[in-house]
Amino acid sequence: MSDRLDISFAVLNTDPEAVCVILAAEGLELGPKAKDIDNKSAGAVLKAAGAADFKGKLKSTLEVLAPAKMSIDRLCVTGLGKTTALTEQNCVELGGAIMAAVQARKGAVASVIVDIEGPEDLKVEQIAAAIAQGAMLRHYTFKKYRTKKTSEEGNDKDGLKKLVIHVAHPEKAKAAFAPLKAIANGVNLARDLVNEPANVLGPVELAEKTKALEKLGVEVQIFDVKAMEKLKMGSLLCVGQGSERPSRMAVMVWNGAKGKKATKPLCFVGKGVIFDTGGISIKAAAGMEDMKGDMGGAAAVVGLMHALAERKANVNAVGLIGCVENMPSGSAVRPGDIVASMSGQTIEVINTDAEGRLVLADVLWYAQETFKPKLIIDLATLTGAIMIALGKEYAGMFASDDELADQLSVASKATAEKIWRMPLDKAFDKMMDSKNADMKNTGGRWGGSCTAAAFLQRFIKDNTPWVHLDVAGTAMDGAKSDINTSWGAGWGVRLLDKFVAEFHEK
Fold this sequence. Notes:
Blueprint: E1 6-10, E2 19-25, E3 29-30, H1 32-40, H2 44-52, E4 61-65, E5 74-81, H3 88-102, E6 109-113, H4 124-139, E7 162-166, H5 170-195, H6 203-209, E8 219-223, H7 225-230, H8 234-240, E9 248-255, E10 266-276, H9 296-310, E11 316-326, E12 338-340, E13 346-348, H10 356-371, E14 375-380, H11 385-390, E15 395-399, H12 402-415, E16 419-421, H13 426-430, E17 439-440, H14 448-457, E18 466-470, H15 493-503
Parallel strand pairs: 1-7, 2-5, 2-6, 6-7, 10-11, 10-14, 13-17, 14-18, 15-16
Antiparallel strand pairs: 2-3, 4-5, 8-9, 9-11, 12-13, 15-18
Helix pairs in contact: 3-4, 4-5, 5-9, 8-10, 9-15, 10-14, 12-15
């Protein structure tokens, strides 16, 4: 488990810590407390800004060392940009930039002065809360297995332990931060899961991690191999049959809809392949160590369920993850084998490295049969092909429902977790036909992410709105940002939480 940043809120007139951050809007506009600090330091801020040509551009940073007549050792000035154009996401990223500026300093505590108003729809307390969330996300590191806790310079790389945010109404800021903290906790939980090595986090262990959600009010049920055999989940089970470690399915139920217990739930399904060798169709050795992150979709679902429960989301939601390990052995599924899915459809396994879709097929079917959901969204590190198409900046979105796709796109823009809609086409579905079974599990080289989505769609009932998110490029070793420097990104938690909050809680 990574270290967590202690964040508190204090009134503006409280003395700041030795490391202090003030905000400057575009044009070097300072708030009243920041002006007071500048005046007490004999104009050190404005002098330094003039010398450095600092204009207050969003996320730009100016540092003033030991300003005169002040007890402050390091004064950081961070640009707020045009306050009229400020968004919540801007403030989250600003919090990350602030954390980056102060995280490497020797002090264990730092202050941030938030005393500048934003646009009418973004109160100063909301700005403070969003900055706090961004700082919390940026502070994340995974160093559980590092025995050397210091850098080459001898300083603790993550020396900052506490952040005090000074704001006019700290109680209001604290209340605004509570749901954002819950979301950040969900993101960091997902990051922890993805970053864990597979020798520690097997299918059983991943499933058992969901039990911790029970303390937040989530109902958890874990299915072992016998239970899944009874359900006739031959597609999922074939993936894990080559491993000595048994497969699992975990189901997390959050009934948070106030007065609407009968409301159909939203279902979120995650691929939980804790390590993917490719099986008999074994992968090349180079880079195979990254396959510990092949459960990034499952991690996001667990993180999302944590976020929804901790912030007491007014929604009914179900998270389901299929947990397996894909290994080559004498008992492993072979190319050419035919297996029967829970749906009754048969699948010819052409390539055992196209295993994630086999896991999802049964979990998707179980979700629909059991919960009759309002909609279903799955997340999976499914194909390398999606990275060829979209790099590591975007996740691929395949949608059977335009309204659902549009809602996710809105949430994506709000959280900067970027998605790009990809085609679902009958031509891709045709490529999945098999001469020996109802379908095969791969359509060949061309359009690999599209044929994978077409395969999954065969397990979606006609009346169920569905989106598949291929997160192979974003869930692990993705693009770094102001709020993420981790190998395991926790990608998808903020996106889906925003989707729920905006479209299914109102």
